[in-house]
Specification:
With 337 residues, the chain is α/β, with parallel strands linked by helices. Helices cover 33% and strands 18% of the residues. It has two domains: 62 residues, Phospho-2-dehydro-3-deoxyheptonate aldolase, domain 1 (Alpha-Beta Plaits); 251 residues, TIM Barrel (Alpha-Beta Barrel). The strands form three sheets. It has an eight-stranded parallel beta barrel with strand order 7-8-9-10-11-12-13-14, surrounded by five helices. A four-stranded antiparallel β-sheet has the order 2-3-1-4. Strands 5-6 form a two-stranded antiparallel ribbon. The longest helix is centred in the middle third of the chain and has 14 residues. The model has no long low-confidence stretch (mean pLDDT 96). The protein binds phosphoenolpyruvate (PEP) and manganese (II) ion (MN). Phosphoenolpyruvate (PEP) binds next to loops.
């Protein structure tokens, strides 16, 4: 971090700033000229809030040369993190594909989808039991009953399960039952929920917020990690832009950016990004090409009659075809499926 003092700042005032930071354990590199004074703060400055320094009238500006996140930062952890989700490794050479319906509806639906995605080569089963719906009148999910149905379909087909948590008071029901707990886009900055998830060791799939910057997204991962849970997987699912043709705009550039900034695995959800089933296939391929560690794809055995997100769900046959194509693409980018 670099602190630029205003021209003409009395020496004593610059020394006060210097000493206060030294007391906090930082080494200060002072660069002084006739009309300027610059303090270079050396150490882990992720804990410093720059605004607390700029309130000083003698400070011209404060610039970060280091990101405000530490545990998620690749600088302090150069090798890729591989998260073990119920025996499936996410973040290694092998790509992980999470597939399943938006919502858990019936046992028949869950078993049918689970069987077909397993057959096609998916490694994890998704399904929403607690649904964050825009309208309070829309289907809100089967809740606890849905969790059990998802668990049964997963264990019958040998697939670890992924499902969304919306509030910390349900955490006891998730721990021990759910292999990968999803934090949805709308809860990415629910800091109290993130703190509670940080107290567990359950792998967390952290979706990017509707309008979150890459730094805000990684800071949310940092919340979970700061509590002691380092098993975090990031999920790009499209962001809000001025474009309305697609449900969201898939930010493919976020994948190489996050890979540069952080050691955490990144998966891409092209279904919620596009909102249309026919765009899922090209976007899934693009995501793998730009370095994603895996995908999360909505698959439904009867999309026309799905209780939620049918328009963006692939039929099992299309999903199987896509998996075949991905198997061919993976080696080109040094991965396997
Ligand atoms: C979901 O995956 O079911 C979901 C609601 O996604 P998002 O939080 O990305 O909207
Ligand atoms: Mn959905």
């Amino acid at each position: 971090m670099i602190i630029v003092m205003k021209p003409g700042t009395p020496d004593a005032e610059a020394v006060k700033v210097q000493e206060s930071l030294e007391k906090q354990g930082f080494y200060i590199n002072v660069s002084k000229g006739l009309n300027y004074c610059i303090l270079g703060v050396v150490g882990d400055t992720s804990m410093i809030d720059p605004k607390r320094i700029t309130v000083n009238d003698y400070v011209e500006k404060v610039m970060r040369v280091q990101e405000p996140f530490k545990r998620a930062n690749r600088m302090f952890h150069p090798e890729n993190t591989v998260v073990n989700v119920g025996g499936v490794q996410i973040g290694g050479k092998k790509l992980a594909v999470i597939a399943g319906p938006c919502s858990i509806e019936t046992d028949e639906q869950m078993n049918s989808v689970a069987e077909s995605v397993k057959e096609a080569g998916a490694s994890l089963l998704r399904g929403g039991a607690f649904k964050p719906r825009t309208s309070p009148y829309s289907f809100q999910g089967l809740k606890e009953k849905g969790l059990d149905m998802l668990g049964e379909a997963g264990s019958k087909n040998g697939l670890p399960i992924v499902t969304e948590i919306m509030s910390a008071d349900k955490l006891d029901q998730f721990v021990g039952k759910v292999d990968l707990i999803q934090v949805g886009a709308r809860n990415m900055q629910n800091f109290e929920l993130l703190k509670e998830l940080g107290k567990t060791q359950v792998p967390i799939l952290l979706k990017r917020g509707l309008a979150a910057t890459i730094e805000e997204w990684i800071m949310s991962a940092e919340y979970i990690m700061a509590g002691g849970n380092e098993n975090v997987i990031l999920c790009e699912r499209g962001i809000r832009t001025y474009e309305t043709y697609t449900r969201n705009t898939l930010d493919l550039s976020a994948i190489p950016a996050v890979k540069k900034l952080s050691h955490l695995p990144v998966v891409v959800d092209p279904s919620h990004a596009a909102g249309m089933w026919w765009m899922v296939e090209p976007l899934a391929k693009a995501a793998i090409a730009v370095g994603a560690d895996g995908l999360m794809i909505e698959v439904h055995n009867d999309p026309e009659n799905a209780w939620c997100d049918g328009a963006q769900s692939l039929k099992p046959e299309r999903f199987a075809n896509l998996m075949q194509d991905l198997k061919n693409i993976a080696p080109i980018v040094g991965r396997e499926l």
